[in-house]
Specification:
The complex is a heterotrimer. By secondary structure, chain A is α/β, with parallel strands linked by helices. Chain A has three domains: 23-139 and 181-230, Rossmann fold (3-Layer(aba) Sandwich), CATH 3.40.50; 148-178, no CATH class; 245-296, no CATH class. Helix content of chain A is 26%, strand content 16%. The longest helix of chain A is centred in the N-terminal third of the chain and has 16 residues, at 23-38. Chain B is an alpha/beta fold. Chain B has one domain (21-208): Bacterial phosphonate metabolism protein PhnH (Rossmann fold, 3-Layer(aba) Sandwich). Chain B has helices at residues 9-14, 22-37, 59-68, 79-82, 85-95, 172-181, and strands at residues 44-45, 75-77, 108-111, 136-140, 150-153, 161-163, 188-192, 196-200, 205-208. In chain B, strands 1-8-7-4-3-2 form a six-stranded mixed sheet. A three-stranded antiparallel sheet of chain B has the order 6-5-9. The termini of chain B are far apart. Chain C is α+β, with helices and mostly antiparallel strands. In chain C, 40% of the residues lie in helices and 14% in strands. Chain C folds into three domains: 2-82, no CATH class; 96-132 and 151-330, no CATH class; 338-376. Classes of the chains: A alpha/beta, B alpha/beta, C alpha+beta. Chains in contact: A-B, A-C, B-C. At the A-C interface, α3 and β11 of A face α1, α5, α11 and α12 of C. Chain B: This is Phosphonate C-P lyase system protein PhnH.
């Protein structure tokens, strides 16, 4: 068909192309990425492929990463902020196997970071790309299940429904009851789903130096936020957007103003809070920052690589 | 793809080398392009010495084409590129992309002579519901670092970004300003210089520099 | 404890080893061969080929073996493999009128040209467990008496009705009509019938069955008659541009179902029957029938009917028919979600705090502050 059959350069015995996807699929995804960058926050339909992992488990992010990844990239994969979570391990292993690229757990060393549910605490740079895994890309989906309708709303920038929903929250609960996947407005135009990151991470998206790409495999959408782009969390004058505040710093590294995981230590109400961003926490501890539970035997398995078992 | 029947001169041109390493060459080209699309008006260095497209298709323009187009993307060639049939033959052979009947049907328009560019409104502007269905222009430029003609602002630009390229049709920046005004509809422009790329996507706000 | 996800790499490796062991089962029981599965579990194989969207019996059998008989998992394996295959083009339209028929029945006529051919079917079997199959060896099978295959043609029932003008005609494709392909372009709405049929052909048998059933029970009734079900081998041809003519790629086995449904007609056109269409790989009759009923239901708009039921709602049906998508998203809830859950915990605690504070204030205002202590400790 083509003058040059796409050469199989993967280390995986040549069964699959570099980074698994065939070149035509990569081209199709690359075109969608360019459109996404040109129209920030707009969800570009793309012919998402079946991947060798289930829909809903990061196939969108994996396809975006596979389409942009090069042999000289260094890849970091996190899930819930951690490099050690099972799905992050699985996706990282997939790219090690199919692309043979270097991987890292260090945020600062990565050129591409694929994430599910968190944005790293460390500031990202111009030279990095953040790839989000997105389950439901349509921020209006839970208000209007029909694609035909939501597409019209985006076309006309008619987002009244979203404001009504948020306001109903306030009337009912005294708060906007959306704590994650909190909708944002990009570049004063499109309302966008930031993926199910906690709203704590929303401010990091605003004018981030790194390019942010979003892949939703099952729903077949790609979207993007270019660097230095205005990203505003929706709110009201009398109920301004605010993020979660944790009462205590990280028990292991003492970090404040970071997102913390609550860890239940026993069945008697014992619990501690530790950084959700495991690399950030390790980095701080290696620089001598210690939290009040760092030496506690109850927390020792959190600070090490921990038990390994099936 | 249909195998041509005889070794005509245009066939020789069609068979002229594309990417030596299609997988990694296309990836490198795309990353440079993505980088500049995300940072409008900045120049990303890119060169590929091995590909040998027929004139007047430049190496960088050809590299962009090989990276982006295939069976699924109708292309339109401006008169400068269309006058040598070998250009269409080369692109057809390496990518399989069909030729669009009108510029409005094209996913990509390849522009060999941007000084003679037809009005942008001839290209597909996308719709409000599907703004992604617009044409992307790939333009061959002699220079990407001419004296600043415009100042760019918007997504991808921290404060502002001066930019100038040549040659351009005299009304080009006015048209591109109008293009931005109809956001999210509109075309995206990729400039292919001799040693790199620059872009001005539809999201970029343009102010002409005082002469 | 959820933090056991730390050290995930080794845990995953070990889990997969366990899975491999479980899959094999007791080693004193002989392992299944691919041939055994392909020959003896042919309907499973056909379902996996259909929902996996790839006609290859050996690969489907392998997928069933690898997935321990989980047919959705097997279809998923086939889809993930299929997507890596190079695409050479599209075959010529299949001609099911020229099918080498093994089974052909019509519920609308007692007899018809080509005859009724019962063929291999569970129909009219008594569903009694056959314990002779459980015995170590099977008894030799009885010879089968079949009618000599009729040399004559076996026209489709819907064609017979069309000849009389009683059936809406098949839409004839124009030379340059582009047939949609939702593996190349994401589905968008409204979706034309070509895309709807492709979606249904890949869709989950159980989902289509339930939808078709709902239409029989009054949720969007279409008055279906089984015009015809035919099962057999059809030749697949590919037009080779280099040669200028179509070449045969081989035969595949298909089940085609055409439902005859109630009427279309207007002041301009006389009343006629309408139809729903189902086509699946292999002998998966239940799905072919369900598909044809759902197809007909989805045509409400074109036929000037009202949309009142889920089975008629194209966006609903087509968005949820794919079991590979569905199983992935349902099962993804197994992945850790503790970051988002933390955000919810934080909010619910905050709201409770405010709730108790508000009540305390209200009680104080009413002079009831003594009773609150013990309740607040709940």
């Amino acid at each position: 068909m083509s003058a040059h059959p796409d050469t199989a350069t993967s280390p995986d015995e040549g069964h699959y192309n570099f980074a698994y996807l065939d070149e035509q699929t990569k081209r199709m995804i690359r075109r969608a990425i360019l459109k996404g960058i040109a129209v920030p926050g707009y969800q570009v339909p793309f012919a998402s492929r079946e991947m060798p992992m289930p829909y809903g488990w990061g196939t969108g992010g994996v396809q975006v990463t596979a389409a942009i990844l090069g042999a000289d990239d260094t890849l970091k994969v996190i899930d819930q902020g951690s490099d050690d979570t099972t799905n992050a391990v699985s996706i990282r292993g997939f790219f090690e196997k199919t692309a043979g690229v270097e991987t890292t757990t260090r945020t600062s060393e990565a050129s591409i970071i694929q994430t599910r549910h968190r944005i790293p605490e460390a500031l990202l740079t111009e030279d990095q790309v953040l790839v989000y895994q997105v389950p439901i890309p349509e921020p209006l989906r839970f208000l209007e299940p029909r694609e035909t309708e939501t597409r019209k709303m985006h076309a006309l920038a008619e987002y009244g429904l979203m404001h009504v929903k948020l306001y109903e929250d306030i009337a009912r609960n005294g708060h906007i009851a959306t704590t994650y996947a909190y909708p944002v407005e990009v570049n004063d135009r499109y309302v966008m789903d930031p993926s199910p990151t906690p709203k704590f991470d929303n401010p990091k998206m605003h004018e981030m130096a790194a390019l942010q790409l979003f892949g939703a495999g099952r729903e077949k959408r790609i979207y993007a936020i270019p660097p230095h782009t205005k990203v505003k969390s929706l709110d009201f004058d009398d109920h301004p957007f605010e993020v979660q505040k944790f009462e205590k710093p990280c028990g292991l590294c003492g970090a404040e103003n970071v997102y913390l995981d609550e860890v239940i230590l026993d069945d008697k109400g014992g619990r501690m809070f530790v950084c959700s961003d495991s690399d950030h926490c390790e980095d701080r501890r290696s620089h001598g920052h210690l939290g009040e539970m760092a030496a506690d035997p109850a927390a020792s398995h959190l600070a090490s690589t921990g038990e390994e078992r099936a | 793809m249909v195998a041509p029947h005889a070794a005509t001169p245009s066939l020789t041109a069609a068979l002229a080398p594309g990417f030596a390493d299609p997988v990694h060459d296309a990836q490198r080209c795309f990353r440079a392009l993505m980088q500049t699309m995300a940072r409008p008006g900045t120049i990303q260095a890119y060169a590929n010495e091995t590909i040998a497209p027929p004139t007047p298709l430049s190496r960088t323009l050809a590299a962009l084409a090989l990276t982006l187009i295939d069976y699924d993307t109708p292309i339109w060639l401006d008169p400068a590129l269309a006058q040598n049939p070998a250009v269409a033959g080369y692109l057809k052979f390496h990518t399989g992309a069909p030729l669009a009947e009108t510029p409005g049907d094209a996913a990509f328009a390849l522009i060999g002579d941007p000084a003679a560019l037809m009005p942008l409104s001839n290209f597909n502007q996308g719709t409000l519901e599907y703004p992604d269905r617009s044409t992307t222009l790939l333009m061959h430029m002699q220079t990407l670092d001419a004296a600043a003609q415009v100042t760019l602002e918007g997504p991808g630009i921290k404060t502002s970004q001066p930019f100038g390229a040549a040659p351009l049709q005299p009304m080009f920046w006015d048209q591109l300003t109008a293009n931005n005004a109809q956001f999210p509809r509109g075309v995206d422009v990729i400039f292919a210089g001799a040693t790199g790329f620059a872009t001005v996507p539809r999201s970029t706000r343009i102010t002409k520099t005082e002469a | 404890m959820y933090v056991a996800v730390k050290g995930g790499e080794k845990a995953i490796r070990n889990a997969h080893k366990l899975l491999a062991k479980q899959r094999r089962g007791r080693t004193d029981v002989p392992a299944l061969t691919i041939d055994q599965i392909a020959e003896q579990l042919a309907i499973s194989v056909a379902r996996v080929m259909g929902e996996g969207s790839l006609y290859d019996e050996a690969l489907a059998a392998l997928a069933i073996k690898q997935s321990r008989g989980d047919l959705i998992e097997a279809a998923f394996l086939i889809r993930a493999y299929r997507t890596t295959l190079p695409r050479f083009g599209y075959s010529e339209p299949l001609d099911t009128a020229n099918m080498l028929v093994e089974r052909r029945i019509s519920a609308t006529y007692k007899d018809l040209p080509g005859g009724q051919l019962l063929g291999p079917t569970f129909d009219y079997t008594h569903r009694l467990l056959d314990f002779t199959l459980a015995a170590e060896g099977e008894a030799p099978l009885d010879a089968v008496e079949t009618a000599a295959i009729d040399e004559g043609p076996m026209p489709r029932v819907t064609d017979l009705l069309s000849d009389e003008g009683l059936m809406e005609t098949d839409p004839l494709p124009q030379e340059d009509d582009v047939v949609g392909d939702l593996t190349r372009e994401p589905l968008s709405f409204p979706a034309d019938r070509d895309l709807r049929l492709q979606n249904l052909a890949r869709g989950d048998e159980g989902f289509l069955l339930a939808l078709a059933y709902s239409s029989q029970r009054g949720y969007g009734r279409t008055h279906p008659f089984t015009g015809e079900i035919r099962y057999g081998a059809v030749e697949v041809e590919f037009f080779a541009e280099e040669l200028g003519f179509a070449v045969s790629l081989g035969e595949i086995k298909l089940t085609e179902c055409q439902m005859v449904n109630q009427f279309d007609g207007s002041a301009k056109t006389p009343p006629k029957f309408t139809r729903g269409y189902g086509l699946v790989f292999g002998q998966v009759e239940r799905k072919a029938m369900a598909m044809s009923m759902v197809d007909r239901s989805l045509r409400w708009e074109e036929l000037g009917e009202e949309c009142t039921a889920p089975v008629q709602d194209a966006e609903f049906v087509l968005s949820h028919s794919d079991n590979i998508q569905a199983t992935g998203f349902v099962e993804h809830l197994k992945l850790p979600h503790y970051v988002d859950f933390q955000a919810e915990l934080d909010l619910v605690r905050r709201m409770r705090k405010e709730w108790f504070a508000a009540r305390e204030k209200r009680d104080e205002d009413l002079g009831l502050s003594e009773t609150k202590e013990q309740e607040a400790a709940e």
